[in-house]
Specification:
alpha/beta, Rossmann fold, 8 helices, binds adenosine-5'-diphosphate, binds magnesium ion
């Protein structure tokens, strides 16, 4: 079993006006074998948490710690985080013209495994993963994320998850909302990942919709830069019916 531990994490986003504190003491422990959902209103700092974990240069850690099996994640480079078994979707570039998916994924796998997979084995591995995920074969020859639809970006993310086979995955489901196709890709992919056994998932989401397809072991409500309440899957049902008002004191505009 592996454990990802976030302790009293404070962090800021770096803007032109200076550092703006967003994370205000995040505490969260995830054991492998579990899916944890973080839910919270827009602007509460959910994506900031994901970027901070990914080591994004626009975000700064002010205090606190992140430990993966006791190892200090915040001291690690982005590649070291990946090698340690942490998958952070946004550590990968958004669009890479001229680099095929197949080459891009091989580079990512090389970073994680510490050596380049043999080309012949790699081609087979990618083919199998793509067919398991119902991705058409032409996908591997396309440039990374170039002209990808929302659903295709999600397929790419889930394909990475499958091939890189981390211990922990942090997935930030953007607030813009996934279409039905993308929702199915993500939920099937996450469930399949979990079924490999001993995998931890931190699923960040604004809407309860995806939790109809993925049953979380724990649900955390995020408000104003920290976890303000934790519970079981039933907490998501409560959020579905009453929204975040009980936790924030503010009524949210209907989405
Ligand atoms: P969420 O994902 O919960 O919607 P975010 O982490 O995206 O929240 O944003 C948290 C807060 O940080 C918001 O008030 C947002 O305006 C601010 N913020 C995030 N990124 C930036 C940025 N690059 N520049 C300025 N403010 C930012
Ligand atoms: Mg947002
Ligand atoms: Mg967000």
């Amino acid at each position: 079993m592996a454990t990802l531990e976030i302790k009293d994490l404070h962090g800021s986003v770096l803007t032109e006006e200076g550092a703006k504190p967003i994370l205000k003491g995040v505490n969260l422990t995830i054991d492998s074998g579990q899916i944890h959902a973080i839910m919270g209103p827009n602007g509460s700092g959910k994506s900031t948490l994901a970027y901070a974990l990914a080591g994004h240069p626009k975000y700064q850690i002010d205090s606190g710690s992140v430990l993966l099996d006791g190892e200090d994640v915040l001291e690690m480079t982005v590649d070291e985080r990946a090698r340690a078994g942490l998958f952070l979707a946004m550590q990968y570039p958004v669009e890479v013209p001229g680099v095929s998916m197949s080459n891009f994924l091989r580079t990512a796998a090389t970073a994680v495994r510490g050596e380049a997979p043999q080309v012949r084995h790699w081609v087979k591995e990618v083919k199998t993963a793509m067919s398991d995920l119902d991705i058409e074969t032409s996908f591997s020859e396309r440039s990374v994320n170039e002209g990808f639809s929302g659903g295709e970006k999600k397929r790419h993310e889930i394909l990475q998850l499958d091939l890189l086979n981390p211990k922990f995955a942090v997935l930030d489901e953007t607030d813009s909302g996934l279409d039905v196709d993308a929702l199915r890709v993500v939920s099937d992919g996450v469930n399949k990942f979990k079924d490999k056994g001993d995998k931890g998932v931190l699923l960040i989401t604004h809407y309860t919709r995806i939790l109809k397809h993925i049953t979380p072991d724990r649900v955390h409500v995020f408000s104003d830069g920290k976890v303000v309440e934790s519970g079981g899957a039933e907490l998501a049902d409560e959020l579905e019916s009453t929204g975040y008002v009980r936790f924030t004191g503010k009524k949210e505009a209907a989405a």
